[in-house]
Design goal:
Layout: H1 2-24, E1 61-65, E2 75-76, H2 78-85, E3 90-91, E4 97-100, E5 105-110, E6 116-117, E7 127-132, E8 140-145, H3 149-152
Parallel strand pairs: 1-4
Antiparallel strand pairs: 2-8, 3-6, 4-5, 5-7, 7-8
């Protein structure tokens, strides 16, 4: 028992000494005023950093560059503009594909599905859709013809779709290929 009481007494004495030593030191209020060099005249000329994002931004591609006004690029589609304002016809990644005109930069989506969110299937495969203010209720959608030869050679109105973008033919109903 004597060993235990001496240990308790030693711990109490150690705690008392450590609290009195801490009480004797002055409290820290701030650091020395001269520990950092002064700001140079005119301040620091540091470049602006890009915005910090949780995920990296996708690459951005300019697909159309024109010196004409954006209103002459295509025809305004009022139904698709209304659907865009209701978030039913939008770009998957806003401004990933861009069209640069005289004074404006518009977002681009393709009717065959690239960068296009179209759950009600309103898009025409042979069109390119330009989105002005695509992330607001003032969205304007312009439709213009896509002159890509792979799309022009593809005739979806006909029964067979034999083109580079066509899906593989289905096997006959009676079995596999022979």
């Amino acid at each position: 028992m004597a060993g235990r009481s001496t240990r308790v007494a030693a711990l109490a004495a150690f705690a008392l000494l450590s609290t009195t030593a801490a009480a004797q030191q002055p409290p820290l209020t701030r650091t020395e005023p001269g520990h950092q060099p002064p700001v140079p005249p005119g301040g620091y000329q540091l470049p602006l950093a890009p915005p910090v994002t949780k995920f990296p931004l996708p690459p951005q591609y300019v697909v159309i560059r024109s010196t004409q006004d954006w209103r002459k690029a295509g025809k305004v589609d009022k139904d698709l503009s209304r659907a865009c304002a209701n978030r039913e016809f939008t770009q998957l990644f806003p401004m990933q594909y861009r069209a640069i005109f005289q004074t404006d930069v518009l977002g681009v989506a393709f009717g065959h599905g690239t960068n296009l969110r179209d759950p009600k299937k309103r898009a025409d495969r042979r069109k390119i859709y330009l989105f002005r203010n695509g992330d607001s209720t003032a969205c304007v959608v312009l439709a213009m013809d896509n002159e890509d030869l792979r799309l022009l050679n593809d005739n979806p109105a006909a029964g067979d779709r034999q083109g580079p973008g066509a899906p593989p033919a289905r096997p006959p109903a009676g079995g596999g290929y022979r």
